[in-house]
Amino acid sequence: MRRTLLLIPHEIASLPVFGFGWLLIGLLIGLGVRILVAKKRQELSFGQAAKSVIAGEGMMWAIAAAVIMFVLPWVELKNVDGDPVGLAIRGYGMMLLAGVGSAVYLAAFRAKRRGIDPDLIYAMAPWAFIGGIAGARLFYVVQYRDQFFSGSIVESIGNVLRFTEGGLVVYGSFIGGGLAVAYYLYRHRLPVLTFGDVIVPCMFLGVFFGRMGCLMNGCCYGGRCEAGPMAVQFPPEAKVYGDQIASGELLGFKYDAETRMIVEVRPDSLADQAGISVGSRLDELGPDYSTLDQAPRNLPVEDVQSGVYVTVDGRRTRWTPSQLPARALPVRAAQIISSGSSLVLCLALSALSFFRLRTGSVMFIGFAAYAILRFVLEWVRVDEAGQFGTSLSISQWVSVFVMAGSVAGLLWLYYSKERPAIPDAEVAV
């Protein structure tokens, strides 16, 4: 896990990097250079060149300045005192960009093999990206809405917009991106099934990189397991570490959620060493923030580990961060399983393109295969609860509908009179 790849400091040489600082100065220098270039190319005076640049590009420069002055300072990480310490470049965000870039490039390559102008792929890519991000984030926000709308309106908006830190749902991206691409294809009168066969395999290459981002972010983890090749142990800043603290498992005990009675204590664990025994009653369990005052002020608060306290049978026990385990207990590497299976699915669907199949078959087979993979993967993961009074997670329910729709689509193709598509092997590059 490496949630933050780089932390750009809040200030350099006592001058802020963001807001009214170094980055804004750099933007103004860039604007000056752009005006000089226009002056030289168009043989204008400096004032005329400035008017020309501002008239044609003024909105772009104004938006960039607004982002630097107001948006970037707003998303800077804070220390325990609430002071800004810098802007984090997230591993999840970088993997997200890698996934988008690789998927678009592969789609352009596949389009060229089908005799389709690759520029059409590049033109619809922004639609797919914006629609995919919006759909993925909206799906997650609706699913976990209690985590986003508990504070003020400004805080809630900020929580919703921090999608580079995680919190994107693959199915949401498929729905949002699919609708955006469908609108683009309809608007330009382009064949949906043909482009679906081109694009769908590439989506799973994006999922491959996205799930590696989940691994770096410490989210979308699997259930408890014994240490082994397919097990991972996350550091304290990961969500699973906090979940295992809250359940008592990382401290060495388990309790009944209804009666609050201790039902199991692991030998030689922190709980066992503290004298906690089976049959005792858990009164309280929570974070101990008394050690936060000792945290370095150049460290983001999200990287500062708090202590833990428990009250059992009226007796309180505290553990400092240094006394707590350095890693969470092993969990199944659901991210690696999902990433690897998505890459295999991408390769398998790409191979299918070399066979004479009906147009649209690759698209529907891809959706059906992912529905099966995701349904099974949800049994490995434990971070989503059952929905609608069942043990099935929301993603499993969506998988059921996707599978049904994909089968219906394949049956429609099979019984239609459309001719098979031309295999990629027979198309000149």
Automatic annotation (TrEMBL):
Metal-binding found in the keyword field: no
Keyword Glycosyltransferase in record: yes
GO BP terms: lipoprotein biosynthetic process
Location of the protein in the cell: Cell membrane
UniProt GO cellular component terms: plasma membrane
Membrane-spanning ranges: 12-37, 58-75, 87-108, 120-140, 168-185, 192-210, 336-355, 362-382, 394-415
The protein's enzyme class: transferase
Residues reported in the UniProt entry to bind a 1,2-diacyl-sn-glycero-3-phospho-(1'-sn-glycerol): R211
Pathway: Protein modification; lipoprotein biosynthesis (diacylglyceryl transfer)
EC assignment: 2.5.1.145
Keyword terms: Cell membrane, Glycosyltransferase, Lipoprotein, Membrane, Transferase, Transmembrane, Transmembrane helix
Its biological purpose: Catalyzes the transfer of the diacylglyceryl group from phosphatidylglycerol to the sulfhydryl group of the N-terminal cysteine of a prolipoprotein, the first step in the formation of mature lipoproteins.
HAMAP family documented for this protein: Lgt (MF_01147)
Family that this chain belongs to: Belongs to the Lgt family.
The protein's name: Phosphatidylglycerol--prolipoprotein diacylglyceryl transferase
